[in-house]
Specification:
This protein is mostly beta strands. The chain contains no helices and 11 strands. The N and C termini lie far apart (40 Å). 37% of the residues are buried.
């Protein structure tokens, strides 16, 4: 079992930055690939970024590549999403998710149905 709690969301102007954190409890964090997803009102949940168990492999949606960075600290059971150059279209509820029992170098995949554990979400609002 993995329990996830996101933090760091808020209101920011376009061009600004935010850093999201996701704290995990449970002994399987280091054995899990982690992902960040987001969901805007009226839209489906979409993949943002993923990271492998050791952090050596990452994957990004095209819409955030070059602006967002995913990282993890297994000693702290925490995964981060650094978001720079934010745009109004980045406005959404951001969720972290864990996918257990994956190969070492696999960044988790982009399908939310493949992730077993989810946090409650944190709101990010980017004003123009």
């Amino acid at each position: 079992q993995v329990q996830l709690v996101e933090s760091g969301g808020g209101l920011v102007q376009a061009g600004g930055s935010l850093r999201l954190s996701c704290a995990a409890s449970g002994r399987t964090f280091s054995m899990s690939a982690m992902g960040w997803f987001r969901q805007a009102p009226g839209k489906e949940r979409e993949f943002v970024a993923g990271i492998s168990r050791s952090g050596g492999s990452t994957d990004y949606a095209d819409s955030v590549k070059g602006r967002f960075t995913i990282s993890r600290d297994n000693a702290k059971n925490t995964v981060y999403l650094q978001m720079n150059s934010l745009k109004p279209e980045d406005t959404a509820v951001y969720y972290c998710a864990a996918r257990s029992n994956v190969l070492q170098g696999y960044s988790g995949g982009r399908n939310p149905e493949q992730y077993s554990y989810w946090g409650q979400g944190t709101q990010v609002t980017v004003s123009s």
